[in-house]
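Example record used in the benchmark description.
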Amino acid sequence: AMAFAIDRKAITKYITQLGQQPARGFTPIGIAGGPTILQKSFFPSTRQLAKAKAYMAKVKNPKRDIKIYINNVAGHINIATAVQAYWKELGLNVEIKVMEWKQYLQFLGPPPNSDVDVYRLGWVYDYPDAQNGLVLWTCDSGNNNTNWCNKKFDSLIDQANATADTAKRYQLYQQAEALISGPSGQVPLMPIYWYVYSALVKPNVKGYDVNPMDQIDYTKMSVS
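Model output (structure tokens):
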């Protein structure tokens, strides 16, 4: 319900304003195998309030008072304020808690802090493979402060780690991704947008090509 109440397109258009893409799942579309991995992911780019309210109506005794913890960056505060307004329409009272970055990371854990209902974090991939992101949500991950633990998810990641066949790995990642962002998933997190990189390139520069990691092969570049 909370995921469907967020207008990701509006946030990227009016708040972040750097060409970020609304996220329909966790794994970025530009990561190798992204389109395959995201096939069962279903987060909408625009707010779907009627569906959000329908999902909320199925929840017995939902927690109405929610605390969102974020680090002290103006853009994050603006996004949290927007989310606060979206969730208010679901009957949720949202309090935004702002912390300095170092204090914030210590506060989140591990172990997960029981005072936290929702928290904001991002992830920049160390290498362009879905494993580097999905492994964050395994039960024993030091980056998983959600209190979410799913043994099936862990098993899928373990199988993918032991699989050399790329196509098979993508299928395993798709199943794992569906557990966090699919219609039958448990939705422990609510991705809002995927990061992008911006650059100014002169018209006389040829062969400029950047991969999803913002890495450039300078051997293919030339100046005319």
